[in-house]
Amino acid sequence: MIAALLAASIALACTLLLTPLFVRFAHRHSLGQFIREDGPKSHYTKRGTPTMGGVMILLAILVGYFAAKLLTGTAVTPSGLLMLFLMVAFGAVGFIDDLIKILDHRSLGLTPWAKMLLLLVVTIVFAVGGLLFRDRHGLTPASTSISFIRDLPIDFMSLGPVAGIILFVVWVELIASGTSNGVNLTDGLDGLATGASIIAFGAYGLITFWQFNQSCVRLVSPGCYSVRDPLDLVIVTFAVCGALVGFLWWNTNPARLFMGDTGSLALGGGLAAVAILSHTELLLVLVGGLFVIITASVIIQTGYFKLSGGKRVFLMAPLHHHFELKGWPAVQVVTRFWILEGLFAAAGIVLFYGEWLAVTR
Questions:
Q1: Are 260 and 92 in contact (CB under 8 A)?
Q2: Handedness of CA 165, 168, 174, 179 (dihedral sign)
Q3: 289 domain residue, yes or no
Q4: CA-CA distances (angstroms) from residue 293 to 224, 296, 298?
């Protein structure tokens, strides 16, 4: 647990102290945000605010994780490295997207198909890697079974090795793309995605720490968890929380720096990775409930607009912009959405712990 606290502290110090240097660098090289013309008018004042702050978040996470490992003399694990890989690789795709927006002076970067293809390649590597690296207890980082609070009796491999692996990759792709899009859509108000991500990753820090305490490797009991390297997942999630807390200091209203797609895609990839590697894939829907609601608002708006010939359910999607246009101050929207995400995360933790109590009775 000392390594997790070290990782969080070091990552927090990195973003808190070094972000102003990145802001000055971004201003000097005109790495500013472009704003949608159809968005709320209040957003026009944010045009030119430095973006790609996700670079600082990822750098702080990596420094925090590896420094904690070095200081405590503990070895890196496949699970920790796989989670970091998905975050960094998704962040790299987001970086390319952000860079195109800046260089071409527009609010759109990569084409949807190009972004989808790049993310798919990364997800395939992650999924295959998750089925490798079996430890001496026979555990791999990921499982081919669909999971909720632990693995369910629904195993893709029951359909055969080839079909099983293909379906598993598709399943991982659905989780990763859905989560990364959810965080990306949420990143529309100062501090909203950052604060919500702190809550979601914090919840997974508690969940994976409990899995470590009740690991079947450490003790055999009716409620033990067959998860590989749960303590390393704790360290990575704590590093993420630390990096985001430091970043929030500069990202809260009025933001001096946006995370951009570099940050939002990386954070979405990280949430997907920790859910898959902790065997709590379906629980992610509850823990990340705010991201689900915001994504659903876009789907509902788009679908209804097409089916009704131009009518809208919300004044604007994603959902936080609807409340902005209804007259809510941006800070009020962000605070209330943080509270909502906190309730979702708390419900996920209660459900997770309640299942353990039910199994152990």
A1: no
A2: negative
A3: no
A4: 32, 5, 9
pTM: 0.93
Residue 348 lies in a domain: no
- pLDDT one-digit tens code per residue, 67-125: 999 999 999 999 999 999 999 999 999 999 988 888 776 667 788 899 999 999 999 99
Q: Residue 70: inside a domain, yes or no? A: yes
Instruction: Please check whether residue 225 lies inside any domain of the structure.
Output: yes
Distance CA 129, CA 140 (A): 9
Number of domains in the chain: 1
Q: Which residues contact 99 (CB under 8 A, 6 or more apart)?
A: 52, 109
CA distances for 4 relative to 61, 202, 226, 281, 325, angstroms: 11, 12, 21, 23, 41
Give the domain range for residue 36.
Answer: 2-282
Say which amino acid occupies 273.
A
- Give the closest residue to 287 by CA, choosing from 192, 167, 355, 200: 200
